[in-house]
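Consider the following assembly input.
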Amino acid sequence: MSSELMSRIIPCLDVDNGRVVKGTQFVELRDMGDPVELAIEYEQQGADELVFLDISASHEKRPTALKTVTRIAEHLSIPFTVGGGLKKLEDVKSFLDAGADKVALNTTAIYSPEIIDQVAHAYGSQCIVVAIDIKQEQQQRAIYSHGGRTKTDKEFTQWSHEVAERGAGEILLTAMHKDGTGSGFDCDLIDEISALNIQVIASGGAKSEQDFLTAFNAGYDACLAAGMFHSGDYKIQEIKSYLKSQGVNVRI
Amino acid sequence: MTKFITILNTEAGNLFSLSAALKAIGFDVVIANTPSEVKGSQLVIPGQGRFGTVMQTLESNNWLPFLDQWRKEQKQVVGICVGMQILFEDSAEDNNTKGLGWFKGRAEKLNFPKQPMVGWANISSSRLPEGAAYFVNSYAIRDASQCIARTHYGESFCAAVNDKTITGLQFHPEKSGQYGRQLLKTLLITNFKENS
């Protein structure tokens, strides 16, 4: 019997000071609940992984974030990625020690890309996800750092190649212009980096089960969403049943 | 009823989820840095780190003679991921390091469509429960005479081996959701019999 890797659905918890929040286009944050309760709920719903983004990411709030990560890890039996404000190899170590399986790096990877090599060397490529926040602006695209606040001079395909070459295990690609809009994942982006030997997670814009189907058919390895799960509009297993009926290889 | 199980600390990563998984199925978990700290008659070798450094740690912390004796006494060992690979003779990951050599064969870098293999794949087996398990690896054993489960990602390879009390799992049961919990119970509690 042959099988290949399954298409993954990954709920994301954006956590600020111990609470899950959700905003539109990276602003207007609303309280969506307790991260531990939501994590347990999503695993039961059939989530294939969980991503935790510490969006406060300030030095003062770091101990709170670490404690929350540990509380979640104690209850989870699926892979668990943590990101947000990780600046040094020691930050990576402290989140892994707290119970995370992988770390997601964004701003630090942009300004000190050698940290990708360092994490890959110290813990293996499977441990590092590089998050790329991209925004379509008229005819141009821009890569942003600092949680979508700072425009950088990185070029999308070039940067994607670089992170893959430096040893990242996965790319988490967030289309900022799609985030919170419910207009579906950006499926043009994956075309441009599909030749890379690296898994890519789509993020930003999911509203319906159809959006997941379109993204997997376009070539994404995984899809990440937050709002549509937090709101209770969709249960993960409902989306998976639909995907399975459409021929997508998912874990039921 | 509490029963002890020991995780051998290979000092190559956090043992958090493995420890939590074993606790969740009812064990008292001991993490042993050296053989003198082992409790119970079941030993788990965790799945983090690379072949060479894990073997080095086993050697410098005096695990090698202990493990050979443990095997002679037919006590149980479950090796996960690289913990399975070191049960074999050697690995393309670190050519100059010998494994335990309990199983014949060698870990190779496989032709995965994307490297490393990270994600869920179905395993097919006549002895283990079938289902989707979570894999994280670049290297694996293509074939072994004691292979009891296989999977496929770009090419077919061995997902689990077993010989009497020694079992290797290429995937991570501690990260494989309810399937993984069930599988750990099958291995560690009911000894390959279906759970009641």
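Residues 160 and 193 of chain A are 7 Å apart (CA to CA). Ask yourself how this observation constrains the way the partners meet.
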